[in-house]
Amino acid sequence: MVPPSARWAKRPPVTIEALSILYDNLTFSEPADCAVGAAAFTAFWCCCRLGELVIPSPNLFDPSKHVSRSTLPLAIFVLPNSSRAAALRIPWTKTTREGGATISITARPHRTCPLAALGQHTLINANVPANAPLFAYRALTGWSPLTRQEFISRCNSIWTSQGFPPMPGHAFRIGGATELLLQGVHPDVVASQGRWTSRSFLDDRISNVDTIMDSYAQQQCLSRPAPSV
To answer: Which of 13, 50, 81, 217 has a 20 to 30 Å separation from 60 between CA atoms?
Structure first.
């Protein structure tokens, strides 16, 4: 048995309100802000580790570990429920290592939709070379990679200016999982989206999990068709 002291502390999530504040305060016509928004909305809705999307420093881009611009534009397909979606292949993850993973990106009926943000990033930063990091953006000297520190600093500068506390990078993944559960998405689907191998992430990672699961149950009751007479 894993002792309590060895378990991960539950982490505060980025909320949909905090994500919306980013949208409202980023300037999407500006290349750097457009890249930040696309990375933020993808990390949140796709339950990604931040290190899967942005690079640790300008000189540490490794194509064998970091996803590149060559994945754009994404091929869009339509799911059976008529939602638009795309698949993003990343070459390396913390758990699968060089086995990589495929991230499912589904359109969301919200202004922070990751597919829309990635599409805008593709257009605004169109002249960035294919061998650059995925969220690299146009700059005066040609292009610049979006680093983890730059990303976090930009997000936190917006949040603190709006009276929100600063958030760490891992808060996006947990925030996205929490929001999906609150919207009534099945826990197994959320686990698959975040590439957790079981539902143990609920107890290990999600704050207020009992309240959230109660909300999930209520969502299921509301959406369940009435029994036949």
So the answer is: 13
